[in-house]
Design goal:
The complex is a heterodimer of chains A (about 240) and B (about 400). By secondary structure, chain A is α/β, with parallel strands linked by helices. Chain A is built from six helices and eleven strands. In chain A, helix 3 crosses helix 4 and helix 5 runs parallel beside helix 6. With about 400 residues, chain B is α+β, with helices and mostly antiparallel strands. Classes of the chains: A alpha/beta (about 240), B alpha+beta (about 400). The interface between A and B is medium-sized, with 31 and 22 residues.
Chain lengths: ~240, ~400
């Protein structure tokens, strides 16, 4: 695989995460090295308890690793457990997150949920309003812009969550089982949406999934077992 | 985008109920302060309205309000010859309780020195004042009496000629004004049997003193009405009110009168201080204690409400942190809601108070300064109450979103 450095969205080397200590010590992630390019969509597979979600929290700068380095867009963010940047600011500017549940703020409309991500990133109200509508249109839920999350279907909520994840033009989108709560048709639609987003928005996308029916959507699949990672296939090749 | 107002709009019913509850609590705090102010006003309003420069009372007493004072009415004449005295007239004050239309009615009766004093200084609500020396009365409208009503007091029936406003005694009773003679007649009203017993006792007393031995013919008069025996007793009043001529020092006149061995003298301000320190002080401390306790209770309740509201939003707060929201965004969400809760609660308290306070048995006086102080206190406790919620929110782990 030949990749130019400025195209690398995420580079993680030797990541290890240990919970507890002594007799209760659990190594959730062991010496994981992974690299994701911009415009690439990668599936992260593995049985329950394999450490997929823990790896996602490390890559998403939600928890610090005990060991290893994480570099985002060419900038070293974590060196072992030391943060080299303000991780919350970095998350705001470089990441988009999508989860099994949409996790939309219940008292904000669909458009406001998308705008919120931009406004907390210091975008002006005018620009964030315009981009929120563009994104909702792009994801086919523009007509639901003024509805509260409780008035949207599961699929529509997930599309709004994707729109929120895209709001700040992130380098990397991390999705944790985003189709688990959807039927197979809607699940596939969401996976295809991620592929479209990765290719058209030039973002790296990592999707933790159990859904093997939609694996053809991914450029690569990575498989985790007992906290260790192995690259199972390069589907594009 | 203001998250606090969006959340409130979404959960409006819950916020409205919570704010209403806080408003009721704050109304009680406001009411306590208002009752204290009412006590002070009630205690001092008569002294202020009368406007006498000096109050001459029985020696070594703090009368006529803080304790009983009895001085002879003819003290007026002695006072009048003091240089600098413009006018002097007697003052009588006592409280009666009567049945009126089947309900107990308490009146604090003040005697007016007719014809010099016809009560022209009283704040009139309706009617036109006293027109004759007897059987007419001026009452405060809080008594429930109306102009033209008849009221039996002593052995006479009095007709209400005028209503005043805000003339309440320090005990919270409506004040009534009548001529000094009528006030004394009501004060010393006795049943016929009591009068007969007293007259017999008086004759016996006469023969036990030198006067009875030297002037036995007085026994006939001693057995008659007391007004016919000036040598045995004189009409008593509670105080003599003195006005000082312009250009004369009030203190100098007071010092002059105070040199007499049978009286004490207080200036208007001295009389007010006696009332406030003696009668109102304990009530002030009691009300102050209640107010402080209510403020603490309000603060604790607000803190618990805000903490609960924060717990309800913890998942959303974790999500906000996950997508990179600064702590100031989260802090703003909680603190703005706390301040809104306090401010709207304060407004509800004020508006409800305007409606409910007039029905309180004691007068509630809302003073602008007190309202400003309470507003500042509410603002501060709103901020303090939000700290618990903020502390919990700041501790929220963004990874909670994954669970």
């Amino acid at each position: 695989m030949s990749r130019s450095n400025n195209n690398i969205a995420l580079q993680a080397t030797g990541l290890t995460k240990i919970y507890g200590s002594g007799h209760t010590e659990v190594v959730a992630v062991r010496d994981v090295t992974v690299e994701v390019n911009r415009g690439e969509i990668v599936a992260l597979l593995g049985p329950s308890g394999a450490g997929k979600s823990t790896l996602l929290t490390l890559l998403g700068l939600i928890r610090p690793p005990n060991m290893g380095q994480i570099t985002i867009d060419g900038k070293l963010v974590f060196d072992n457990h030391h943060a080299k940047v303000n991780v919350r600011t970095f998350r705001r500017q470089k990441f988009g997150f999508v989860f099994q549940k949409a996790n939309l703020i219940p008292f904000l409309t669909a458009a406001e949920n998308v705008r919120l991500a931009m406004e907390i990133n210091d975008q002006s109200v005018r620009i964030s309003r315009q981009r929120a509508m563009e994104l909702l249109e792009y994801l086919g839920v523009a007509e639901r812009a003024k509805n509260l999350p409780s008035m949207l279907s599961g699929g529509e909520q997930q599309r709004v969550a994707v729109a929120r994840a895209l709001a700040n033009r992130p380098s990397l989108i991390l999705a944790d089982e985003p189709t688990a709560a959807l039927d197979s048709v809607r699940g596939r639609q969401v996976m295809e949406l991620f592929r479209k987003v990765a290719h058209e928005q030039n973002a790296g996308v990592i999707v933790v999934t159990h859904d093997h029916r939609a694996l053809d959507v991914f450029d690569r699949t990575l498989e985790m077992e007992d906290g260790q990672l192995r690259e199972s296939s390069n589907l594009n090749k | 985008m203001n998250l606090a107002t969006k959340d409130i709009k979404h959960n409006f019913g819950r916020f409205a109920l919570t704010t209403g509850g806080i408003g009721l609590l704050l109304m009680l705090v406001m009411g306590m302060g208002g009752i204290y102010r009412g006590l002070v006003e009630d205690a001092t309003s008569l002294v202020e309205h009368i406007g006498a420069d000096l109050w001459v009372v029985q020696k070594d007493t703090r009368g006529p309000f803080a304790e009983i004072s009895r001085i002879p009415r003819n003290l007026e004449d002695r006072v009048l010859i003091v240089p600098g005295v413009e006018s002097a007239y007697g003052f009588v004050s006592h409280t009666v309780q009567r049945e009126y239309k089947g309900k107990p009615l308490r009146l604090t009766i003040q005697g007016l020195s007719w014809p010099l004093d016809k009560g022209h200084w009283l704040p009139i609500a309706a009617g036109r004042g006293l027109t004759q020396a007897h059987y007419e009365i001026i009452v405060d409208k809080s008594s429930g009496l109306q102009v033209g009503d008849n009221m039996a007091l002593g052995k006479e029936t009095f007709i209400v000629k005028e209503l005043t406003k805000g003339m309440i005694s320090q005990a919270g009773d409506a004040m009534a004004f009548m001529t000094l003679d009528d006030a004394q007649a009501v004060q010393f009203d006795l049943s016929p049997e009591s009068i007969r017993i007293e007259r017999t006792a008086r004759v016996n007393r006469l023969f036990n003193i030198d006067l009875g031995q030297t002037q036995p013919q007085m026994s006939e008069r001693a057995g008659g009405p007391s007004s016919g025996i000036p040598a045995l007793g004189t009409s008593m009043v509670s105080a003599v009110l003195v006005s000082v001529k312009p250009g004369y020092s009030i203190d100098a006149v007071a010092k002059n009168i105070e040199s007499w061995p049978d009286v004490s003298v207080y200036t208007e301000n001295g009389q007010k201080q006696l009332l406030l320190k003696g009668n109102v002080d304990r009530a002030r401390r009691q009300l102050g204690l209640f107010s402080v306790l209510l403020i603490i209770v309000s603060a604790v309740i607000m803190a618990l409400i805000l903490y609960t509201l924060t717990l309800d939003k913890l998942h959303d707060i974790a999500m906000l942190k996950l997508i990179g929201a600064r702590n100031s965004v989260i802090l703003g969400l909680i603190m703005q809601q706390a301040i809104l809760l306090g401010c709207i609660g304060f407004c509800i308290a004020y508006l409800l108070g305007q409606w409910i306070f007039p029905y309180f048995p004691r007068r509630v006086v809302l003073v602008r300064g007190d309202l400003y102080s309470l507003a500042i206190i509410v603002f501060v406790i709103s901020i303090l109450a939000s700290l618990l919620g903020i502390w919990r929110a700041i501790r929220a782990d963004p990874s909670e979103v994954l669970s």
